[in-house]
Amino acid sequence: MLAETNILRQFKRRKYHFFTLIELLVVIAIIAILASMLLPALNKARQTAHKIACVNSLSSLGKAYFMYANDYGHLVPFKNLKMNWFSGFPATGFLAVYLNMNTSIHIGQRSHLSGQAHQPIVRSTISCPGVDSVPLRDPVQGTYSYGYNNMVYAISGSTITTNDDYQFSVASFRDFKVPSKTAVFLESWSTIANIWDKTLWRFPHSNRNNVLFFDGHVDSVLYKSPFMENTSESYGSIFWYPGGKNGY
After folding, report:
1. At 126, is the pLDDT very low, low, confident or very high (cuts 50, 70, 90)?
2. DSSP 156
3. Phi then psi for 79, rounded to 5 degrees?
4. CA neighbours closer than 13 Å in the CB half-sphere of residue 134
5. CA within 13 Å, CB half, 103
6. Bridge partners for 222 per DSSP
7. Do residues 130 and 52 make contact, with C-beta atoms less than 8 angstroms apart?
8. Model pTM greater than 0.70?
9. Residue 166 confidence (pLDDT)
10. Do the beta carbons of residue 67 and residue 75 sit within 8 Å?
């Protein structure tokens, strides 16, 4: 009993301090300030991670592209009614087999499975994670990450209509005068990128566009770079045209 009495007395003598409203508001303000300082750093880290993942995807795409060309006499994927460069199925895509792909989701695409609105949205393993943060541009086709330089893809100026999947293409390794300066794949909202429709170009990485060049290296190009624009300076630019005369 004596022990219990002493414990009760000690409990009663203790002074308990409770937060006042002002102190609570000060704590909340401090947390808000710390969060405002950390969020930009976290956003920057996320953007950096997206850029690195995008560069890796373009590098993988480049390896597949060059393996294809090596197997077909240094000819590059070309316009064809039966096949295309971006299909996820080897039967209809020039590059799918080299990327170990066999899926209805195309290279660079984020879309509903099989293009059905009731199916879940998925993203290709070869794509930019930055497209996850934007709504699907088309309910069926979804959103794309990369576009093939149309000055290379359709260098002949017309679509090849034959059913021969591997008919000769005008574009071959010998057409690239300065491989390190001619773009093969760019970040684009469409599967095609060209000088004429710059509304399709994407600049998701601090106003920069990751570009795969024909020598295999990936570099970032700043928004509104003059050699990309549809101007007298860019027309014939070696950035777009394999045999172009104007450098950058």
Report:
1. very high
2. T
3. -65, 135
4. 16
5. 17
6. 208
7. no
8. yes
9. 38
10. no
